């Protein structure tokens, strides 16, 4: 680059062109990760961390990783001590709480600690007189000193005076130049621009610089107008792409992903994210004649959701009354099915054929000639059912010990044959797996079970929807407040007595969420999916009950449009600004007090009741009346009569369906586990099928039903005794 073109000052007298070799700026990552702890570099890293936006990355995991990397670049725990890191955090907060006029003044100094900031402020208090002009002069001088290079102490007095004039002009013009650069391209490198302007000032004043050739001193400083005009000329000489490459080289990943996943983001996106970014090296002092730019007024956001109108009255539901007749249960009663026949309503011939076919297919893919039959598969299932009744420390003991149950096992199937079949147990074709479905290897069996569960489910008015856990200590999923807290989370829809109608294992990116209403969230879409499953049996006014994880006013409105009634507890942040009495004030009222409001457009009621605790409920079908009188306890003392709204009573009666199912399953759970990760879910489906069969048995034989243990033993003994292969 020719010095005559690079600098606005006069040309050398000898006419020779002096070539200036400019060292390429380091990249953003190198600059933030370098060992240097200059205040300018730390300020760059700090601002990048503080102004990071969630929209810059593709998901929450990437956002967290990005923030961790940016914080690491700012605080540098590998080089800084804990005391130094605390000093940086305290310094940042201290500068934040300062008044704006003091912030603008203090930021002109390169601060390394909070003590430096205090010293600067104390000196300001001592030096500042009654005149406000004196403070302004002090600010410009201090800002000029902040731009003095390392060579300043080695210069003569005349050189210092000349450079001081140039540096003060820099203070008044650097903000304007930085603003113009952003306005043109939205991209700039503060470190590069500051260093180049300092080089111009040094060359004009005759001060030696490490990156340029020493020139003769100049008697006149560079005017501010000429400096700004030169910057505009320099920008115009380069095309947009060239200018971008020059000034974004050290910040190429500053607005994207530090892991370089966002490298291909276009320049417009980077420009948008860097707009308005201000560094501590920029001066806030502007020329008096510079007009202040006012930000454009923001247009108020127009919401497409109609405003909610709440009024204090009881709800007026318009659902039809329940009048459905369960003809399916009547047919089961007339057929008088035994326990095995009831269990095989769910594990039917189609299910057994599916398991046998996929197991043989998987074994052949592993070059094993298994050739398992349906008869042998029933024996395997009989052993699994028996393990819930007769527990052994290891499964080989079912063939070693001598008693009635063990003799059945030995006569039904050999241990080696059982181990071989159990190790190749499979439910899907590995060559046709859906990679987006975490449970694709179980999906055919899950669909078969859900189809049979719904087909023979009792037709009832009330259903419960909640989450449960399938025990597995290798899982990282945790659910507090459940008997089993570690395992696979399972979404369940049951009757009020615990019959499982529909279930779906939890996965982070659920396959059911495609094409669903995003406003309802994961929980709301799951409830809507369960409502659609129930409506497949007929357009009846079902009533669903669920907890606060699922409930929202939007969900209640969506269910009402489907003709489904619903009641559930609701969280405070989902009440759509309903003016209920706050929970703190309600707690101060006497027990039995309740407050309620109805949304006029959708006819949805919200109620907050003070019982054993404070509970908030939402419903589209049940209101306050009739109010019940119940007993309550407070401080171990019984309160004989308190008021209870009707929707609170209904929710208490219907919300325990999933809990009852969990209680039944926990009594005789399959104890034999395979080495495959999904074996616990297979055992879970076997236990649920047994629980549902027992529910139907009790409904068909209300006065002469078997206990669950006896019912399970009958099924296990039948499979072991009637499917024994004596030739084996």
Automatic annotation (TrEMBL):
Keyword match Protein biosynthesis: no
Region described as Disordered: 278-310
UniProt domain SCAN box: residue ranges: 46-127
Keyword Nucleus: yes
GO MF entries: sequence-specific DNA binding
Organism domain of life: Eukaryota
One annotated Gene Ontology cellular component of this protein: nucleus
A Pfam family: SCAN
Bias kind Acidic residues: ranges: 283-292
CDD domains given in the database record: SCAN
Cell location: Nucleus
Keywords: Nucleus
PROSITE patterns in UniProt: SCAN_BOX
Record-given protein name: SCAN box domain-containing protein
Species lineage: Eukaryota, Metazoa, Chordata, Craniata, Vertebrata
């Amino acid at each position: 680059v020719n010095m005559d073109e690079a600098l606005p000052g006069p040309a050398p007298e000898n006419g020779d062109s002096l070539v200036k070799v400019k060292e390429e700026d380091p990249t953003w990552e190198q600059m933030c990760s370098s060992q240097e702890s200059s205040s300018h570099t730390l300020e760059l890293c700090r601002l990048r961390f503080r102004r990071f936006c969630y929209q810059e990355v593709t998901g929450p995991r990437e956002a967290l990783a990005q923030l961790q990397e940016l914080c690491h670049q700012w605080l540098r725990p590998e080089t800084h001590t804990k005391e130094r890191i605390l000093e940086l955090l305290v310094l940042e907060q201290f500068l934040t709480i300062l008044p704006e006029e003091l912030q603008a003044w203090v930021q002109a100094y390169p601060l390394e600690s909070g003590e430096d900031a205090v010293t600067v402020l104390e000196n300001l208090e001592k030096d500042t007189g009654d005149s406000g002009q004196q403070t302004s002069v002090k600010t410009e001088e201090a800002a000029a000193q902040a731009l003095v290079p390392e060579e300043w102490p080695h210069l003569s007095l005349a050189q210092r005076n000349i450079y001081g004039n140039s540096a003060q002009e820099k203070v008044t013009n650097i903000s304007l130049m930085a603003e113009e650069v952003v306005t043109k391209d939205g991209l700039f490198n503060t470190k590069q621009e500051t260093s180049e302007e300092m080089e111009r000032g040094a060359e004009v004043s005759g001060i030696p610089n490490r990156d340029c050739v020493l020139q003769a001193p100049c008697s006149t400083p560079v005017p501010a107008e000429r400096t700004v005009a030169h910057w505009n000329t320099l920008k115009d000489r380069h095309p947009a792409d060239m200018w971008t490459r020059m000034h974004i080289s050290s910040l190429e990943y500053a607005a994207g992903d530090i892991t370089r996943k966002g490298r291909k983001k276009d320049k417009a996106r980077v420009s948008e994210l860097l707009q308005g970014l201000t560094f501590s090296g920029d001066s806030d002092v502007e020329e008096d004649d510079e007009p202040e730019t006012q930000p454009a007024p923001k247009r108020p956001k127009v919401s497409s959701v109609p405003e909610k109108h709440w009024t204090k009255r009881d709800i007026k539901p318009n659902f039809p009354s329940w009048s459905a007749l369960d003809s399916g249960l009547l047919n089961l009663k007339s057929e008088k099915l035994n326990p095995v026949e009831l269990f095989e309503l769910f594990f039917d011939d189609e299910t057994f054929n599916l398991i046998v076919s996929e197991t043989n297919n998987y074994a052949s893919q592993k070059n094993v000639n298994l050739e398992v039959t349906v008869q042998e598969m029933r024996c395997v299932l009989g052993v699994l059912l028996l393990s819930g009744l007769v527990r052994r420390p290891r499964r080989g003991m079912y063939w070693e010990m001598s008693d009635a149950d063990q003799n059945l096992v030995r006569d039904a199937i050999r241990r080696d044959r059982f181990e071989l079949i159990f190790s190749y147990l499979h439910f899907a074709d590995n060559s046709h797996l859906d990679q987006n479905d975490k449970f694709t290897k179980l999906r055919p069996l899950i669909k078969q079970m859900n189809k049979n569960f719904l087909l023979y489910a009792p037709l009832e008015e009330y259903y419960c929807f909640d989450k449960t856990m399938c025990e597995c200590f290798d899982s990282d999923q945790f659910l507090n407040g459940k008997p089993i807290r570690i395992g696979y989370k399972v979404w369940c829809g049951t009757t009020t007595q615990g019959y499982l109608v529909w279930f779906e294992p939890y996965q982070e990116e659920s396959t059911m969420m495609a094409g669903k209403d995003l406003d309802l969230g994961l929980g709301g879409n799951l409830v809507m999916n369960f409502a659609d499953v129930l409506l497949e049996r007929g357009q009846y006014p079902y009533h669903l009950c669920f907890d606060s994880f699922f409930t929202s006013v939007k969900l209640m409105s969506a269910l009402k449009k489907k003709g489904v009634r619903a009641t559930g507890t609701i969280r405070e942040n989902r009440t759509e600004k309903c003016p209920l009495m706050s929970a703190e004030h309600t707690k101060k009222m006497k027990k039995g007090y309740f407050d309620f409001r109805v949304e006029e457009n959708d006819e949805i009621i919200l109620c907050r009741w003070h019982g054993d605790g404070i509970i908030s409920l939402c419903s589209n079908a049940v209101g306050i009346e009739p109010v019940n009188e119940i007993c309550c306890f407070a401080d171990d003392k019984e309160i004989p009569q308190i008021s209870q709204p009707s929707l609170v009573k209904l929710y208490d009666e219907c919300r325990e369906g999933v809990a009852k199912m969990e209680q039944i399953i926990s009594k005789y759970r399959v104890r034999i586990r395979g080495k495959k990760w999904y074996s616990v879910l297979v055992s879970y489906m076997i236990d649920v099928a047994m629980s549902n069969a027992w529910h139907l048995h009790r409904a068909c034989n209300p006065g002469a039903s078997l206990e669950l243990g006896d019912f399970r033993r009958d099924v296990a003994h039948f499979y072991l005794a009637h499917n024994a292969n004596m030739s084996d």
